[in-house]
Design goal:
240 residues; four-stranded antiparallel beta sheet; five-stranded antiparallel beta sheet; mainly beta; 0% helix; 48% strand
């Protein structure tokens, strides 16, 4: 799936299992009468049943995904909390039970929603939870027990433990120092590390490990440049 910058289209491609070639299929389109969408983020739930789209001050769209045909069906629009609230990034828990939304502006912070039948979203008690300035990316650890938010405005990462009810509690030492204008987060597939890319550098890329004594706490492992500065990194992805 690809979220187009034209702010009206979700592209969808079939992946050839043998060659990796992409074949475009129907996808989806969307429109709003009174809101101006701004394409920000797209996530597919780990169970493959839902596609969530963050559209800045226009809120979210939820699509159900037919896992046989690939057809997308619009099931819900989650309206913005205010005209000055921007939904910037999304993450879904490994069990597809919760959607996390990084929000900046009025009522900003980390929104947490249960994912019900047909992708229905309902806020958990206490949502949105307080983060640093201008939350811009969100990542969940492999076990789904902790969630982290990149705060682009103050160069920090807020970390939370996740209760069985979905409510959040700040982790020990949170917020953690990161690069200037930290923009993107990723966890590696082993579940051992979290990486943060900072658009303003100082440093460009930071890698953290998860503390083995204080569960969820981030420990700095290393930092590096991503080229000849200024490089302005905007995204990061990890495998092993």
């Amino acid at each position: 799936f690809a979220l187009d910058g034209n702010n009206v289209t979700v592209d969808e491609f079939l992946i050839n299992a043998s060659t990796g070639a992409l074949v475009q299929v129907t996808g989806a389109s969307y429109s709003f009468q009174s809101l101006t969408p701004l394409a920000r983020s797209l996530k597919v739930s780990p169970n493959g049943e839902y596609v969530f789209v963050a559209l800045g001050t226009a809120g979210e769209l939820v699509y159900t995904l037919d896992t046989t045909t690939g057809a997308l069906t619009s099931s819900q629009q989650l309206g913005p909390l205010s005209s000055t609230t921007s939904d910037n990034a999304l993450a879904v828990s490994p069990d597809s039970a919760y959607l996390y939304i990084a929000r900046s502006g009025t009522n900003g912070g980390l929104g947490v929603y249960t994912i019900g039948a047909n992708g229905a979203l309902n806020p958990v008690a206490g949502s949105p939870f307080t983060t640093g300035t201008q939350p811009y990316s969100v990542a969940v650890n492999k076990a789904g027990t902790d969630v982290y938010v990149a705060n682009r405005g103050d160069g920090t990462i807020s970390g939370f433990s996740v209760a069985t009810s979905g409510t959040l509690t700040a982790l020990s030492g949170s917020p953690y120092t990161s690069g200037t204008g930290v923009t993107a987060l990723a966890t590696d597939s082993s579940g051992d590390y979290l990486l943060a890319a900072a658009n303003g550098g100082s440093p460009d890329l930071t890698m953290y490990s998860f503390d083995t004594t204080t569960v969820g706490k981030l420990n700095l492992v290393t930092t590096t440049a991503t080229g000849t500065d200024p490089t302005g990194p905007v995204a990061v992805a990890a495998t092993h």
